[in-house]
UniProtKB/TrEMBL annotation:
Gene3D superfamilies, per the entry: 3.90.950.10
Marked site: Important for substrate specificity: R24, T96, Q184
List of catalytic residues: D95
GO molecular function: nucleoside triphosphate diphosphatase activity
Superkingdom in the source lineage: Bacteria
CDD domains: Maf (cd00555)
InterPro entries per UniProt: ITPase-like_fam, Maf-like
Full protein name: dTTP/UTP pyrophosphatase
Organismal lineage: Bacteria, Pseudomonadati, Pseudomonadota, Betaproteobacteria, Burkholderiales
Locations listed in the record: Cytoplasm
Species, as recorded: Limnobacter thiooxidans
Length: 224
């Protein structure tokens, strides 16, 4: 009988807190064997408001700023509860944005926006930036070892047939995804080439995130 590899054998913590609503990020972390607990500091409208870009904001600056805001919100909420519930451990937050010609393509609000985004991505190469930030929260509610990374991938789309675009929008899949598509879904058949991290395009680059968790855990342990 094969014995599964534990996170500890890879230098990872046994458990993490994930400050994200994304089921894809949860699934990706679980592939590492981690015990993942989702912690949401805000309701959905508050979280969406947090993701609002500034006018003409650079996509790379935007994704890192929003990720840090998400982490701070989670840490503050956990700190408030830590005295009564003993919340502690490694906390992760992340954000993904799609950029085309230096412009941010967020989550489409309606079918017209989704069509415009998908039409603009058709037959072009765009960037997908995913930022990840993490910290260790100890039993006293003290934040230690804050670290962050950002990973950028280049994604080349073949020409998207208009019939596909219309059917894809009708399926509802584009509406909770930056850039109006998910590479792990049916739209992936039109991705001609990627340069970077497939898991990063999905929402959490596993290599960079694993390295980040090791750094945070090591720094937290050395501070004791």
């Amino acid at each position: 009988m094969n014995t599964p590899i534990s996170p500890q054998q890879c230098g990872l913590p046994h458990a993490v807190w994930l400050a994200s609503r994304s089921p894809r990020r949860l699934e990706l972390l679980q592939t590492l064997g981690l015990n993942v607990t989702v912690f949401l500091a805000q309701n959905s409208p508050e979280a969406e408001a947090l993701e609002a870009p500034f006018e003409q904001e650079d996509p790379l600056v935007y994704v890192q700023r929003v990720t840090q805001l998400k982490l701070n919100a989670a840490l503050n909420a956990m700190r408030e509860k830590s005295t009564e519930q003993g919340l502690s451990g490694l906390v992760l937050a992340a954000d993904t944005t799609v950029a085309l010609n230096g412009n941010i393509l967020g989550k489409p609000q309606n079918a017209a926006e989704a069509f415009q985004m998908l039409h603009s991505l058709s037959g072009t190469t765009h960037q997908v930036h995913t930022a990840v930030a993490g910290a260790w929260l100890d039993e006293k509610g003290t934040t230690q070892a804050i670290r962050s990374i950002v990973q950028t991938s280049q994604v080349e789309f073949a020409t998207l047939p208009e019939t596909f675009i219309q059917a894809y929008i009708a399926s509802g899949e584009p509406f909770d995804k930056a850039g109006a598509y998910g590479i792990q879904g049916i739209a992936g058949q039109y991705v001609r080439h990627i340069s970077g991290s497939h898991s990063g395009i999905m929402g959490l680059p596993l290599f960079e995130t694993s390295e980040l968790m090791r750094l945070i855990q090591t720094a937290a342990q050395s501070s004791h």
